[in-house]
Amino acid sequence: MRLRPSAGNLNNRVSEFAASGLFLWFTSNTGQNMHGSIVVYMVNSDEITAWYASTRQQNGWVIDKTEWIDKMVVEKWFPIR
Q1: What is the rounded CA–CA span in Å between residue 59 and residue 67?
Q2: What is the largest CA-CA distance in the chain?
Q3: Residue 49 pairs with which residues in a beta bridge?
Q4: DSSP secondary-structure letter at 8?
């Protein structure tokens, strides 16, 4: 896995890498920062969908916010305890 600063990825488009695929991006140092993010891109021919979820430490880890996906779906896929 190759780590790069986010600024270096701003002009990249997932559709440039594959006509079909699932791309997952996540923050580093989540435990140390007590906060993290996940971004998922799904590419299927000309259709691209994406969603975002953030986590934070609050008496245990919780899904904090979501965009373009229901929070309960993310909690089911990533059961944080």
Answers
A1: 23
A2: 42
A3: 42
A4: G
